[in-house]
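User: Show me a protein chain along with its predicted structure.
Assistant: Here is one chain, sequence first, then structure tokens.
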Amino acid sequence: MSGSIAGPRWGVLIERPAFLRETPDLLIIDGMDALSDALRVLHLTGAVFLDSEFTAPWCVVSHSGQPGSSVLSGGPNTIFFHVLTEGRCKARLAAGGETLEFGVGDLIMLPRDDTHLLGSDLRMVPTFAEALVQPAPSGELMRIKHGGGGEKTRFVCGFLRCDERLCRPMLETLPRLLRVPLGEGPATAWLTSLLHAGTRETSAPRPGGETVLAKLSELLFVEALRRYIELLPEQQTGWLAGLRDRYVGRALAVMHEDPGRDWTVQDLAERVGLSRSSLAQRFTDFIGQPPMQYLARWRLTIAAQRLRNEKTTLARIAADSGYDSEAAFNRAFKRALGTTPAAWRRSDRSRIAREG
């Protein structure tokens, strides 16, 4: 056969077949990981700050993710978590709801920092966790030791801070209390070794130790999100579920890869291999808003971070965000984030001055 390269039954493949050109890659992300991009732009900060040891029977209530900690301000912008390193326990929100059971390797996350109960027996009258915290020696984790002397349970606790106005698409699809099984595979062994390293870092502090603990907190959060996405039921919707969908995830990826491009729904549809109407409907079903509306909001999220981190003029940021005038940018920014760009920039500078 003419053009044969492997014998008479095989022809030369000189072009990607049409059915492959019209099918998106099986991987959700191509080039730019939308989850990583969102986390980078949202600029989460945090730390691992508490080592807790409980013995059965025990029950504690934790208010606003701050058991006696001056490093936390609480409130809706704090994501609080516990990682079980030994034993088991139960947990539920103080306001009620389902009681969840946790074991070694599980991560307990409270994306909205709700007051919650932890214990071997939640029917007990709870002790306030903040009353149990032992002051931390210089450079060490704060500690809790409490309980009746029975079966031991240990936690490492941490937090992340974010601006809820920027993080809302990510956080609003998460339950108020969730269990993320980190499992027993290589990734968990890696995280466990990092936790041990973090503990050693606090007992023998070295230069950069605060940064190490902050990065460890971020790594735990990212791994929890990845595991949560993997375990979502097929019918689940929301931003995190959309990342897993082969079409919506691909559309998110290409928008995040080049947010300044003058995208249209037709452009996106051609990139992911769907019709314009099918992509628009599928994207809205998962994300809760049309693609172009999502893109406009994401551009404003990027603008908000640039206002905090750069000295670039408002006019330049407005133009980069796709607005023809600074006035139009101001109106859109205020609708999305509840304040003007100038006020947003001033408030961040004031916060830095207070914390400094």
